[in-house]
Design brief:
This protein is of the alpha/beta class. The protein has 13 helices and 13 strands. Bound molecules: pyridoxal-5'-phosphate. The site of pyridoxal-5'-phosphate has 14 residues, from helix 3 and helix 4.
Length: 380
Amino acid sequence: MSEPIPFHKALIEEEDVQAVADAVRSGWLTMGPGVLSFEEAFKARVDTSYGLAVNSCTAALHLSLDAIGLQAGDEVLVPAMTFAATAEVVCYFGAKPVFIDIQATTQCMDPDLLETALTSKTKAIIPVHYAGQPADMDEIIAFADKHGLKVIEDAAHALPATYKGRDIGSIGDLTAFSFYATKTLVTGEGGMVTTNRQEYADRIKIMRLHGMSKDAWKRNTSQGSWFYEVVAPGFKYNMTDPAAAMGRVQLAKLDRMADMRRKIDRAYRAQLDCHFIDFLEAKTDRTSAAHLFVIKLKPSCALDRNQLIEKLAGLGIMTSVHFIPLPLQPAYKPFVGAAQTFPVALGAYERMLSLPIWPGMTEGMVERVAQTINELVKGD
Ligand SMILES: *Cc1c(COP(=O)(O)O)cnc(C)c1O
């Protein structure tokens, strides 16, 4: 059998290893100059005023909801097809995630359905830029403005991506990014919040480190003092310096990595047999980070999604499913309204899978994945 093709493999090169080693040797292990340097570079890259590094996208989302003052009993609109993190952070406050069905074409939150879920308790919307392609931000922001809601973007898939010429990270009230091991920029674990509002940035800076009113790096320099104030019961969400050092190196090659992903995306679209397979629509007014390549099997396929995943795994091609819709999960069933059915998300879930797409994947590997799938779906 040919070499297995993993579902994902991060692009870790000698420069990543060197940067982490240098950070460790410097002795400054956390909240030091490496974190500040990564934040500066990151906010410049996504064209925003503030960038706050944290230890996950989940932390970034949690801190964002804290910054807008989410309270127990409030409601937040989230897409039905996303990772658990998007909804769990709402529950941290004793608030309620309200699920919105997705568009069939992009699998992002359907803005036409927001109205049906609006109540006097609705406080915010968390759109997810599914697979790396931005959601319909104009429609979502217009709706939010009309009803006085905040927009927090879950951009775990969308680095780098643009919407009508603007960088994701610079558009909503706050944006949360992930640097988890499988995402488009990796630090192992890590995340970033970006915002253009100083008030939010100030609050997040304090809350990511125990609610303390001074940064650790200032306290530990000779100019700093030992004095600090705890102004709120905060969290322990700060990023480490070795992680930031790797983030800085990954950021420098972000566009190169994105080009590699986009090339694979185009190759799959050209090579996979569209008689049997549907693709997500690639909108022309936005660019995708191409984090995931999701296909949906047409009814004409010779085998179903589960059979295809199993057959591919047997041939050394690893795939995945993003995501099991949250309304199907035991923890989130209690948040589903009696009249809510999510026909688009549930229908897509039955017949979709995600193919390997990672920088460093060769043209030969992409061809092998496409050809193998074409043969299997045809059934000969
Ligand atoms: C991965 C992911 C997250 C969580 O990211 P972490 O950095 O692991 O906390 C949140 N939302 C979506 C849509 C994701 O795919």
